[in-house]
Amino acid sequence: AQSVTQLDSQVPVFEEAPVELRCNYSSSVSVYLFWYVQYPNQGLQLLLKYLSGSTLVESINGFEAEFNKSQTSFHLRKPSVHISDTAEYFCAVSERGSQGNLIFGKGTKLSVKP
Amino acid sequence: KAGVTQTPRYLIKTRGQQVTLSCSPISGHRSVSWYQQTPGQGLQFLFEYFSETQRNKGNFPGRFSGRQFSNSRSEMNVSTLELGDSALYLCASSLAPSALYQETQYFGPGTRLLVL
């Protein structure tokens, strides 16, 4: 059965520092991968997604993630974070050919300090 | 274009009661999915509706049910509420069933349910 593991439940970091949020998945078939962000008291917003093609995907606000099939990973990175990036980040997977529902990781709370 | 809207935003109920939550998808979207978010279990899939038909269902008891109307609006109902049903219930919409077309799901702000 598919599953998603986000290794860090909390990541504190100083403003302008680089950050990596780790995500590993388990699946016996090909997958689609997503990162969602949730700001306090809000719903989820899609940050970026990998469906096919280039394994490096980018968001409009400077985040990027790289699909690594051999390591079954989809880590999220940003070279320089801002205070406004403080939020909870969820990695999700959907198996190709399945019913399509998203399986989420437990989330990583990113806390950016001045 | 307006986003996914959910009503009510907050709700307090007591054990044994039932509750109905509403979701209006983005205009033109015909697929609606529901998720439950709790601190302990995280985000878990409840069910997906497309063209008024339930296409997929997560591992939840029969107390959790839903439906979709011809205008794509969806409701979910929880009967005989338990304390453990306290959660944020999120609705997501997409143009078509995500399994068939891998359409991106757009989430609403959620309904926060507290069961006392």
Please tag this protein with its features.
heterodimer, A: 114 residues, mainly beta, 4-stranded antiparallel β-sheet, 0% helix, 53% strand, B: 116 residues, 1 helix, 11 strands
Folded structure, characterized:
- The complex is a heterodimer of chains A (114) and B (116).
- Helix content of chain A is 0%, strand content 53%.
- Chain A has no helices and 12 strands.
- In chain A, strands 2, 5, 6, 10, 11 and 12 form a 6-stranded mixed beta sheet that branches.
- The radius of gyration of chain A is 14 Å and the shape is globular.
- Chain A is mostly beta strands.
- In chain B, strands 2, 4, 5, 6, 9, 10 and 11 form a 7-stranded mixed beta sheet that branches. A 4-stranded antiparallel beta sheet of chain B has the order 1-3-8-7, with no helix packed on it.
- Chain B has 116 residues and is mainly beta.
- In chain B, strand 5 and strand 6 form a beta hairpin.
- Chain B is built from 1 helix and 11 strands; from the N terminus they run E-E-E-E-E-E-E-E-E-H-E-E.
- Classes of the chains: A mainly beta (114), B mainly beta (116).
- Chains A and B meet through strand 6, strand 10 and strand 11 of A and strand 5, helix 1 and strand 10 of B.
